[in-house]
Structure to design on (255 residues):
């Protein structure tokens, strides 16, 4: 099983780092494939339980791998808990603004927005699904070990009650925020592809299982791929045996 050491390894440098807003954490890294374009594009949202101590650097590895496979990537940074304005709704507002900035990037970097996917890992999987509920990507959304049910995240006390800090209280304190911010409670349009390792001891696979059942009952387009012997970080490590399944899922949406 892959070590979380990937969080500290430096990835290949991006093609460009651009700000989509005026705050210091409102930026993203662009990585481009070889060739002339127009390129399909994937927006990536990193995890870290919405906390400021975790940032986008580690996600550069998978973004570089996808660029090598022919997909342009836009790796988003955003305000997190511990940054001024971080938490709900500021964190999500940044993700939404960063995604909308793709329209400005498209002409400059020859991006094909008709072949656009959003993908996120862990808390980034939560944010990716929230984004798809408000701004539907053309080809769909991929959640990697996503924190897809915030009520359940509180019940399980994931990462020392990270969701309480993110939403500013418990479900009793802030019930409307738990409803508004949880992908399990809101309608998500378009294709949803959930990938989760069965050995994940950070976000249990049961969360994605229950989410998938609930959403399928609501007739949403949701499919869950479980990866035996995969842990939480295997899904974002291009050197892991699990990576080919993640890349295949992205390619199947891109078409």
């Amino acid at each position: 099983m892959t070590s979380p050491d990937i969080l500290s390894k430096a990835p290949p440098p991006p093609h460009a780092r651009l700000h989509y807003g005026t705050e210091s954490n409102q930026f993203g890294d662009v990585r481009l494939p070889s060739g002339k374009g127009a390129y399909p594009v994937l927006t990536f949202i990193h995890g870290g339980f919405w906390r400021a101590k975790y940032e986008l650097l580690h996600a550069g590895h998978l973004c570089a791998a996808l660029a090598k496979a022919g997909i342009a990537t836009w790796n988003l940074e955003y305000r997190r808990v511990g940054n001024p304005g971080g938490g709900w709704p500021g964190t999500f507002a940044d993700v939404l603004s960063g995604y909308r900035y793709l329209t400005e990037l498209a002409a400059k970097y020859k991006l094909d927005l008709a072949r656009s996917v959003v993908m996120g890992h862990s808390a980034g999987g939560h944010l990716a699904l929230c984004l798809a509920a408000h701004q539907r990507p053309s080809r769909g959304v991929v959640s990697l070990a996503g924190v897809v049910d915030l009520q359940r995240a509180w019940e399980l006390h994931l990462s020392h009650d990270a969701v309480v800090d993110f939403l500013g209280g418990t479900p009793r304190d802030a019930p409307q925020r738990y409803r508004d911010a949880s992908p399990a409670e809101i309608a998500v349009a378009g294709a949803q592809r959930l990938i989760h390792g069965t050995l994940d001891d950070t976000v249990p696979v049961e969360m994605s299982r229950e989410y998938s059942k609930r959403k399928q009952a609501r007739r949403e387009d949701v499919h869950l791929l479980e990866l035996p012997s995969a842990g939480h970080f295997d899904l974002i490590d291009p050197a892991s045996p699990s990576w080919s399944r993640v890349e295949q899922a992205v390619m199947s949406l891109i078409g």
